[in-house]
Design goal:
globular, 268 residues, alpha/beta, 9-stranded mixed β-sheet, single chain, Rossmann fold, two-stranded antiparallel ribbon, 10 helices
């Protein structure tokens, strides 16, 4: 049976279209539950800046449906607002929890930054969504409503029998304790005997941790489409996945957060 080791460094990656509050709260609870340090990366989208520098760039108003000028000054103002919101969310989490955290603001492409910065991380929380890529005041209200919905739904943890999957289960249980939530274990298995065997590993791990049995669901495979369908069907509040390489996995799973609109936690 795989043995879990506690992560020491948790990174939460955010950009200008992120579910920042939901992702930060998820990451903070994981950091406390797993006794790890939290590092937040807020990435200013370099492609959005290039668009704002074009002389003909414009945006469509959320309520007015009118085109208006979209320039670098307006972009900088909006990004500054978002960066301050991210810092306030981290400070609020630290006031509520004994949390060690840091925030770095960088300019670039989120995937490129992650590829450069996550080499030493054990766990990566993605709060990214392309809806919308640029947020005004009304967009922020929509995101807050979505974040409140995210906080009320189950934690889906994928268990495939790997060593990383053991850490996924530990992280899910830690998040359950901190958020007073409910864990659902998703087991990819193409045959009934495979599902039974992996379920037995889950039961043994839960028993060793003094935890009661928890719900589980069988998946035909561990593909992104299957994970997304399961998360939507269960109305997941967060999805925890075991991976071999964080940076490469972020590239592979970049569309999953857009698809399910809740934090995705990658654990190696």
């Amino acid at each position: 049976m795989p043995q879990a080791r506690g992560p020491k460094r948790i990174v939460v990656a955010l950009d200008t279209g992120s579910l920042s509050r939901a992702a930060i709260e998820t990451a903070a609870r994981l950091a406390i539950g797993l006794r790890a340090e939290l590092e937040a990366l807020f990435v200013e989208d370099v492609n959005l800046r290039r668009l704002a520098e074009l002389p003909f760039a414009s945006e469509l108003g959320n309520t007015s449906a009118q085109h208006r000028r979209f320039d670098v000054a307006e972009l900088d103002r909006a990004i500054g607002v978002q960066a301050r919101q991210v810092r306030r969310a981290l400070e609020a989490a630290a006031r509520e929890l004994p949390l060690r955290w840091s925030l770095e603001i960088v300019r670039g492409d989120l995937i490129a930054v992650i590829l450069q910065r996550t080499a030493g991380a054990d766990l990566l929380v993605l709060g990214r969504t392309r809806r919308p890529a640029y947020r005004g005041a009304h967009g922020e209200k929509v995101m807050r409503r979505l974040e409140r919905r995210v906080a009320r739904h189950p934690i889906v943890a994928l268990f495939d029998g790997s060593a990383a999957a053991a850490r996924v289960l530990d992280a899910a249980l830690a998040l359950e304790r901190r958020a007073h939530g409910e864990v659902l274990v998703a087991i990819p298995a193409s045959r009934p005997e495979q599902f039974t065997a992996l379920g037995g590993q889950v039961d043994a791990m839960l028993a060793a941790r003094g935890h009661a049995s928890i719900g589980r669901v069988c998946l035909p495979d561990a593909g992104i489409a299957t994970i997304a369908e399961t998360a939507k069907r269960q109305r997941a509040g967060a999805v925890l996945l075991p991976v071999a390489d964080l940076a490469r996995a972020e590239h592979e799973f970049e569309g999953l957060v857009d698809e399910i609109a809740c934090p995705v936690v990658l654990i190696r």
